[in-house]
Each structure stands twice: as structure tokens, then as C-alpha cells.
Amino acid sequence: MIKGFPQSMVRLIDDFCKMPGIGKRSAQRLAFHVLSAPGGDVDSLIKHISEVKGKIEFCKKCNNLSDKELCWICSDTTRDNTRVCVVENPSSVIAIEKSGFYRGVYHVLLGELSPIDGTGPDELKINELIERVKKNKIKEVILATDFTTEGETTALYLVGVLKQYAVKVTRLAHGVPVGASVEYADVATLQRAFEDRLGVK
After folding, report:
1. The domain that contains 155 carries what CATH number?
2. Does one domain contain both 99 and 191?
3. 90 within a domain of the structure (yes/no)
4. Counting Cβ atoms within 10 Å, is residue 65 exposed (0-12), middle (13-18) or buried (19+)?
């Protein structure tokens, strides 16, 4: 319990602390901001949080965020469905889309392999990727997992499971530094990585 704060403030601060990247001080600032903000702003925040929880789901095809059965990318008939870019999370999709140079589709794993955290292949959308490769005329799978230990482990695992299928598998190359997340790479770096991607099977 935080001395001097009413219980409702303590609970709000504790809730903010549960968010990634938010420490105790940041949580307190956010709580005070909510307290001092106009009622309309707070009502709007509550409404939008409720809408996100109630309406946003995962695309039935690629697992990207969507408020419909298929996300806007999978619904776009002008996209190249023969190329699938595999990423760890929807944030990476947004980062790549901002660049404007990739016109294929995506497959979001919703995580990365991490034995330490108990995250194995069954916890990710890997089986769904295999089904897409088996049932669709996919010519290339582009592995765009992060260049971290977990991301590299995930990429290597995918190379292994995709070997038995007649599909080209490539990996993002130059420009993305080791240990970096795809979602934080700048546009020029991502473009170079796509252009210089390497075959891995």
C-alpha cells in the first residue's frame, strides 16, 4: 500500500504498473493525469478501452489485429498472396506497412519461441502457417522475426519445419542489427533488409 493515497488511487496505480514499460513513478503520473483530466476525456478513454477489448480480435487468416473476420491486408485483393512475411506480433506488421515497399501478406505468430518462459511451438501460430503453405500457392515465406536470441531460435525452427514443403524461405538480412526488434527499425533499414534477404533452405 502507498502511504497517503486513497485506496482507489492505489488500485489505479497498481493497474498502470501492470502495463509493459510502466514503472511506479510513471504509473503515479498517469493516475494523477486521470484525476486532473476533464471528465469528458476520462469518459472517452474508458469508452475506447472498452471498444478495443470488445471489438478488436485477431484476423482469422493471418492473426493480425482486426475489427472484422479478416484484417484490411488480407481483404485487399491487390496484395501478393504468394509471398508471406512471418512476424512475431502485429506491431511489426505496422512497422513494415509504414515503409510502403512490401505488397505481400503476413502471418503473425503472436510471440516467439522461449523455452525459459515456457513458450513452445504449440503456443504460437506455427501450425496455422504450415496449413497456409500446404493449402495455398505460396512461393516465398519471408522470416521477419526479431534479431534476438528468441527471434533467431524461432526463425531456425521455422526453417526446419518448412523444409519439407516446396516453398522458398528467406530471412531479413543487412541493416537490422543483432538484438534489435523489427518494429523499431526505421524505414530505410527495413527496406534494405527486405531487398537483401537471404535464402535459408
Report:
1. 3.40.1360.10
2. yes
3. yes
4. middle
Distance CA 117, CA 178 (A): 21
Using one digit for the tens of pLDDT, what is the confidence trace for 70-87?
999 999 999 999 999 999
Domain residues for the domain of 22 are 7-55
- Cβ atoms within 10 Å of 43's Cβ, excluding its own: 11
Q: Cβ(105)–Cβ(129) under 8 Å?
A: no
Q: What is the pTM of this model?
A: 0.75
Banded model confidence at residue 18, pLDDT cuts 50, 70, 90: very high
pLDDT, tens digit, for every residue of 102-161?
A: 999 999 999 999 988 889 999 999 999 999 999 999 999 999 998 888 998 999 999 999
Q: Degrees (nearest 5) of the Cα angle 111, 102, 165? A: 60
> Given this model, what pLDDT does residue 149 score?
86
Per the structure block, which three cell numbers stand in for 74?
A: 488480407
Q: Which residue has the cell 537490422?
A: 176
Are 82 and 25 in a shared domain? Answer: no
- Count of domains forming the chain: 2
